[in-house]
Design brief:
Number of domains: 2
Number of strands: 12
CATH topology of the largest domain: Aspartate Aminotransferase, domain 2
CATH class of the largest domain: Alpha Beta
Structural class: alpha/beta
Distance between the termini: 48 Å
Strand order of the largest sheet: 2-8-7-6-5-3-4
Oligomer: single chain
Shape: globular
Length: 398
């Protein structure tokens, strides 16, 4: 048995279930779930229809590399979205479809980390727990970079010692961030790329929230665009992960991609060929259409903007919280311990939020997730308003 499995910590939602054990929520209120980042907007009809139109593809084995049409649609979207010259992304060598970014983020570490006693994988803190598990099962040690108000909820690159940079093999980044919604500016991204060049490590940028943002005139920058504008036109040491789950409200499609450094992707493709994780043909066809169509994504952003406006009007008087730059989470500080707040809110109002400490680790004696909660505004507008009103009512009694 792989002993590294014993190093994995319970997933946040396992801990949430344990926190709520024995609690009977208010029976006169319908449940409102703000805990899981699962979009509840309808999946666009053209995606569903394309899946049905291509069910005949189930008669064929798909290739791990994916169809050329899908890879070309992805390369085209990357160029449109991040201001890359046409043809800069080589659809043949620099794009690899994956079955959702979760499995790809995990598997990527198994490809690029060379097992060594001093190997480090750096990651933001709080973080998506897949990063930590990937590092541990790749034989590396996670190094947590606290993201707080003082750091703008981004990792403080200047706080990392030269020795730690030398030991770093992989740097996981999430922008817009989960849970804070903080966006890494392009200059910050270029600074990180410069460090990767200097110390020879790989950057894995999780950008699955990059198409959900409040200012239509200021879309979040991405790692490949930052590379392009600093002259790293081959995206050396850099890969990005994108998904249709949030962008197109299609979490059940399990469709995403990895793009960037061709040499890294060649190695990752070899790993995935053995891993056996090809994307089904109907999914590929629907994904190609989704990456080629942007209007449904703009409409999706409009829905999130309406929810943020309504919910912040309600919560503003009781929380010091503002709209995030990107993503669909609120990350407010709580007046009592985050676990007590979440448990009490569930008991009194039948509203579920995620305690911040379930997304973070104690680091140098502090926990950057403690006394915050993550509120995922994924439900329909009326449900978000109802849930916000209950949160305010509960908070005003504390």
């Amino acid at each position: 048995m792989n002993s590294d499995l014993d190093r994995l910590q319970p997933y946040p939602f396992e801990r949430l279930a344990a926190l709520f054990a024995g609690v009977e929520p208010a029976s006169d209120r319908q449940p409102v779930a703000f805990s899981i980042g699962e979009p509840k907007h309808p999946t666009p009809g053209f995606i569903r229809e394309t899946v049905l139109e291509h069910l005949h593809g189930l008669a064929n084995y798909p290739t791990t590399r994916g169809d050329a049409a899908l890879r070309e649609a992805i390369a085209g979207w990357l160029s449109r979205r991040f201001g890359l010259p046409a043809g800069r992304v080589d659809a043949e060598r620099q794009v690899l479809p994956v079955n959702g970014t979760r499995e790809a983020l995990f598997a990527f570490a198994q490809t690029v980390v060379e097992r060594a006693e001093d190997a480090l994988v750096l990651m933001p803190n709080p973080f998506y727990q897949i990063y930590e598990g990937a590092a541990l099962l790749a034989g590396a040690q996670p190094m947590y970079l606290d993201c707080t108000v003082d750091t703008g909820f981004l990792p403080d690159l200047d706080a990392v010692s030269a020795q730690s940079w030398q030991r770093c093999q992989l740097f996981y980044l999430c922008t817009p961030g989960n849970p804070s919604g903080a966006v890494a500016p392009e200059a910050w991204l270029q600074k990180l790329v410069g460090l990767a060049e200097r110390y020879d490590f790989v950057i894995a940028s999780d950008e699955c929230y990059s198409d959900i943002y409040l200012d239509e005139q200021a879309p979040p920058p991405g790692l490949l665009g930052a590379c392009e504008r600093m002259g790293n036109t081959a995206f050396e040491r850099c890969v990005v992960f994108h998904s249709l789950s949030k962008r197109s409200n299609a979490p059940g499609l399990r469709s995403g991609f990895v793009a960037g450094d061709a040499e890294l992707l060649a190695r990752f493709l070899r790993y995935r060929t053995y891993h056996g994780c090809s994307m089904p043909p109907p999914t590929q066809a629907a994904s190609a259409r989704a990456w080629s169509e942007d209007e449904h994504v703009r409409l999706n952003r409009d829905e999130y903007r309406a929810k943020f406006r309504a919910v912040l009007d309600i919560l503003g008087p009781v929380f010091d919280v503002g709209a995030p730059e990107g993503g669909f989470y609120l990350w407010p500080q709580t007046p009592i311990a985050d676990t007590d707040f979440a448990r009490g809110l569930y008991a009194r109002e039948n509203v579920v939020v995620l305690p911040g400490r379930y997304l973070s680790r104690v680091n140098a004696g502090t926990d950057p997730g403690a006394d915050r909660v993550r509120i995922a505004l994924v439900a329909p507008l009326d449900e978000c308003i109802e849930g916000a009103q209950r949160i305010r009512r509960y908070t005003e009694t504390l």
